[in-house]
């Protein structure tokens, strides 16, 4: 990801044009998969707050919101320092809030996968899981309805 290309895609994360936003998210996702260096660049470029804005935005398409969670899940597989950035940004809380708003199975699975990855780190705060009875109810409902979750 060079600076010029990065700037173009970062700018498109802020557009109201869903097609351009999705394309930018897809570019970010593909660039960070398997690369802690690229994950570090995404965090350093301040993209994390934008992802957290996109996640609950009901004006965004389900594909955009799914792509956002997948990116967060990939970032959660980064270095300990990178995951600490996610914890400091309260990513688990944002994902649980999105999880409560959406019943689409792929989205639910991506949310739970990301949350589980983050909560494996000792500096993660597990209390968020128990902070809202709605989270517990939705988790139980998900267990009852899904073999993979």
UniProtKB/TrEMBL annotation:
Q: Which GO terms describe its cellular component?
A: cytoplasm; GID complex; nucleus
Any keyword Nucleus? yes
- One record GO biological process: proteasome-mediated ubiquitin-dependent protein catabolic process
Localization recorded for this chain is: Cytoplasm; Nucleus
Q: Which SUPFAM superfamilies match?
A: ARM repeat
InterPro entries in the record: ARM-like (IPR011989), ARM-type_fold (IPR016024), Armadillo (IPR000225), ARMC8/Vid28 (IPR038739)
Q: Which keywords belong to this entry?
A: Cytoplasm, Nucleus, Repeat
Kindly list any coiled-coil regions of this protein: none
Q: Does the keyword Nuclease apply?
A: no
Entry superkingdom: Eukaryota
The identity of this protein, by name, is: Armadillo repeat-containing protein 8
Q: Which organism is it from?
A: Acyrthosiphon pisum (Pea aphid)
Q: What is the lineage of its organism?
A: Eukaryota, Metazoa, Ecdysozoa, Arthropoda, Hexapoda
